[in-house]
Structure formats: C-alpha cells, structure tokens
Amino acid sequence: MVSQVQDALMDSFSRVLTKLAIFLPGVVALLLAVVLLALVGAGLAWAIRAALTRFRFDERVGERNSAGVSDWSPAHSPSLLISRVVFWGCVVLGFAIGVSAYDAAGTSDLAPFILPYLAHSVGALIILIAGTILARYLSRSVLISAVNARLNYARALSLGVKWLVLIFTAAMVLDHLEVGGRIVEIGFGILFGGMVLALALAFGLGSRDIVARSMERTAEKATPIDRATERNDTPRSVRHF
Amino acid sequence: MSTTTAATEMRMESQAAGSSVSAQTVICLGPWYADASQDALQSLLEVLQLALGSNAASALIAYPVADPETPSWHHDGLQLQPYQALSKLHTLSVQTAESYLSLFEIMRTHDATCGMLLGAEAHSLSAAAIRGLRDAVVTRNADLAVPRYSLGEHDGLINAALLHPLTRSLFGVRAAFPMALDYALSFRAAERMAMSAQHQTTAGQQDGLLWPTAEAAVSGFTVAEVTCGVRDVPHPSSTDLSEILGTLAASLFTEVETKATFWQRTRPVPPMLSIEGAPIERVPTSPVSPEEISELVESFRIGYGNLHELWSLVLPPQTLLGLKHLSRQPAESFNMPDALWVRVVYDFVLAHRLRTINRGHLLGALTPLYLAWVASHILNSSDGGNPPEALARAFEADKPYLVSRWRWPDRFNP
C-alpha cells in the first residue's frame, strides 16, 4: 500500500513537473515577446517623436487643422499621440506573438480563441475612445451654441447629446466584443427608442406649452448682429460690427 | 493650391499686360463691385473724380469682372481697368488676402506708387476722405494710411472691445480701426501685404483676413491715420454674432501668435501721422432701452450658468471670481471693470495659443463675456469716444501679464 501511494505521488509529481516543463517555456516566450516588442515599440516611438519634433509636425498640424487632431491628443501634441499609438501597437503585437508562441509550446489552443478576440478588443477600444471624444466634442458644441442662442436648458440639451452618443458607443463596443449577444441589441433598441419616444411625447404632449414658450422666447431673444436693421418693431441701437 | 494661385496670377498679368500704362495711383475696388455697370459705379466715380481732381489722369481704377475679355474704358477723365476677380465677397464685407494680392499685381503691372483698396459702399466716403488717404501716401510719404471713421457710441463694438485695444497694446499702432474697409498703401507696403496674403492663399485661406497695422508695425512702416467722417458700413451677410466675433477673434489671435517675437519685446511706440481728411463728426446715438441691456446681461448670466466649467479651463481663479461677482450684479448697475475684460481677453489669447480647448469652442465661449462687456460699456461709458481710450490704456497697462504668461504658461497663476 505504501508503495502504491508512493507510486501515485511520484506519478503525480512527474505529471506536474512535465506540465510545468511544457508550460513554463510558453509563459517565458509570451513574456519575452511582450517585453521585447515593448522595448522595440519604445525605441520606435522615441525615434518617431524625435523625427516629428524635428520637422515641427505639431506646429504644422496646428496651422492646418485648428479644430482637429491636436485637441484629441495627449498634451495637445499630435506627435505624442502618434508615438503612443506606435508603442501600444507594438505591445499588442508582442502579446499576439507571445500567445502564438505559448500555443506552439504545446500547452493549449489559446491562439485561435484569443487572437481574434484581441483584434476585436483593439477595435472596441478604438470605438470607445472615438465615441468618448465625439461625445465630449458634440456636447460642448451643443452647449456653446445653445448658450449663444440663449436657451435656458442649454446644459440639459448638452448632457442629452453626450449621453446619447455615449450609450450609442457603449452598444457598439459591446456588439463589437460580442458580449451579451442579442440582449445588447434589444436593450439598446428599447433604450434608444424609448428616449426618442419620450422626447416626442415631451414635445407633443406634456411639455408643449413649455416648449412653445421657450421657442417663442428664443425667437424673441436671439441676438442679431445688427439690431438696428433686424428688429423694426422695437428699434435697437447697438451695433457690434 | 500654389499652382492655382500661380495660374490666376498669370491670367491677371496677361490680362493687365494688354493695357499696362503707367499710373501713379491704383484704386482697387473689391468684389462688391464685381461686374458693376457704369450706372452702378456712377456715384462712386463722381466721388473719385472730386477726390482725385487734377490727379485723375494719373490714376487707374480697377474693378473686378468675371469675363477676362472685358475692355478698359474711360469716364470723364477717369481710366477704368477691369481685372479678373480673385476674391469672393467675405461674410463680413472686409478686405481679404485675395484683395491685397489683386492690388499688388495691378500696382506692379502699372508701376504705381500708391495703391488704394476701397471697400463696400465706398461711394458714401467723402471726396476729402479719399483724397486724405491718397495724400497720406503720395505727399506725406506714409506707407499705410488707415481711415478713422466717425461712428456712433454704440457702433463697431467688437472693434472697441477687442480689435483696437489688443492691436494697440501689442503692436503699438494707435489706429482706431485696425480692420478698416478702406486703405491706402505705398508700393513696399502693398508688396509686404501681398507676401503675407500669399502665405494665406497657399495655405488654402483665400478669404483669410490680414491685419495691415500689425504688418506695418513689424516692418517698421510709417502709418498715418486719416479722419474720414461718416461712412456707410455694409452689413455682414451673417447674422450670427458668435460667428462674426469668432471669425475676427480667431484671425487676430492667430496674428498675435505669428508675431509673438515682435510684441514680446518692449519697444518705443512708433509715431503715427494724424491727417485730417474729412472732418470728424459726432454721430448721434439713440439711447439703449433697459430691455436691451437686460437681454445682454441675461445672455451673460446664461453663459455663466452653463459655461462656467469651460471657462474654468481657460481663466484663472481670480478672473472667475470677478465673473461670479459680475453675474450677481443687477442689470441697472451692471459694471464690468476694464481690468477684468482685459484679463479675459489676454487669457483667451493664451488659451488660443496653447489649444487648451478646441479653438472653435474657445471662441464660441467668448460671446457671453463680450456681451457682458457691451452691457457694461453702454451703462458706464462716459468719455463718449469710440473706441474708448480708457480701455485701450487698460490693455496697455496689463500687457506684462500677457508677456509673462506667454513665456511661462505653466507658472502658478492665482
């Protein structure tokens, strides 16, 4: 009996060691690939940033595109944005290579599962970033336009636009990651449709008086550039330009 | 884009070559007079004839046409030369980069020593005003002659609040209207303006705005200010105040950024010639109703309630505190101190340079603050001058703040 227990233990020990011997090189290869590609990415990012700085890329982009890339970039520097994209691209590539190497070590079939998901995750991340930036940009645009049109509910309008875009983005991200399946589609459909219906009802029924009064006030209070010429009923005397 | 510009220049040169007679003065009419008939030009030609007098024979009046085959013609001793229009009508009816390019090309072709740009509704200028602008360049040897129009106290408020004081404090040119409708330029000033215009057109900004007084200051040119009396000012095609303010502020802020190395150094204020063209008139202004003032104040309050977070990205805490106090003032005693408005403008100039937020958003967020200044100006202006002298002095006094923050934007700023 003692010998049987001893055999079982030895077998188990041997199996674990064998698995570890197979598993460890894969993990080391994965880590090595990530670290190596991260180092390559850092080097590339540094070189690209140095080259772009030398060619005054930020200033050129700023001159040609005053409302574009610069505003989205970290520290308002498009060259920093490009160098970071290159760095993280290399890290993701290293991870993909590492996963393949891990599979090649013979432990599992992770690569066919992880690699497409990794690609989807990168896509989803890009959608998330773009959606967040777009939501901020649109909400600010709406807020400023509404304030300059003297709408008292400017902030509510701006928040509405922001959350509409964010919800839309979240639904797209989940759909891209294939999380939730049809629940996301149905949930988004209900939520979005519900919001549109609520707005329609608000305008059509519940808030029609408020909306009418507000629109009337807006039309009355809009600030024309040349008040003297535009408002014949009540003569104005301020001329801005 | 540069090939397009070169092609249009070649077309203009070939068109002008057919009638390249020498002229001492070239008067270039802008796109408002495109394909104008003799009848449409009649009233302007009468004024020009009076203004030029015996010099009419040595003057050339260029007006834009679409058809390159249009022949030149004469009218009571005035020579009219069509040129192919490069520029389109700007929404603000002001001179664009293309206008300066056209003027210089015509001046070069005709060996002119003086070039004049006349803006929309130039027929409302008096002959004395046009003569004064021309004489400033021809007889007083100025490089740039800018008009000083007689305006009502509540007219041209964007100029009074922003354009005049900012250009004066930074570039040291005391001209009342840095963005005028009419100018007279010497050949070298026209050449300089054309160079600057070329930069804009090659960058695809054909309707970009130029700031002649800033260019003159940087180039060390002599500037003359000519009193031009009352003039009809064309209405902008856009009725959106935010758009107009944004267009002008964006152009001026960019100019400030481009010429930062010039204005950061302390220089003696260059002398400016003051020439009397048409006599200065006091334009009667009708009183502004309390309802109008309340609307202006209300616009600011709505802005304060909604844009506070956005402003806090641009303005330092002390300025925000000032705006907070301002938002609590009743409309009847609403008073925005000059120092507060100066800080607001300087901080917006800095934010424009640093791209703290999107530039379109930044300029849009300036509108409620500008309306607050307008309300305060209407209620409290006492000197009656347009543009107000006290505000210009406040801008000059606080210039070290802008210079300091321009150089060290990250330094602690309470």
Describe this structure in words.
The complex is a heterodimer of chains A (241) and B (414). Chain A has helices spanning 2-54, 57-64, 69-72, 78-104, 110-148, 154-177, 182-206, 208-221, 227-230. Chain A contains 9 helices and no strands. In chain A, α1 (2-54) packs antiparallel against α4 (78-104), α4 (78-104) packs antiparallel against α5 (110-148) and α6 packs antiparallel against α7. With 241 residues, chain A is mostly helical. Chain A is elongated. In chain A, 82% of the residues lie in helices and 0% in strands. Mean pLDDT of chain A is 77; it is low at 223-235. Chain A has 2 domains: 1-108; 112-222. Chain B is of the alpha/beta class and 414 residues long. Chain B folds into 2 domains: 2-278, Spore Coat Polysaccharide Biosynthesis Protein SpsA, Chain A; 290-407, no CATH class. Chain B has helices spanning 2-17, 38-52, 97-109, 127-138, 157-171, 187-202, 212-219, 241-258, 260-263, 290-314, 317-327, 338-354, 359-364, 367-380, 389-397, 399-407; strands at residues 25-29, 59-65, 73-75, 78-84, 114-118, 144-149, 183-186, 223-229, 272-278. In chain B, a hairpin with a 2-residue loop joins β3 (73-75) and β4 (78-84). Chain B starts with a helix and ends in a 7-residue tail after the last helix.
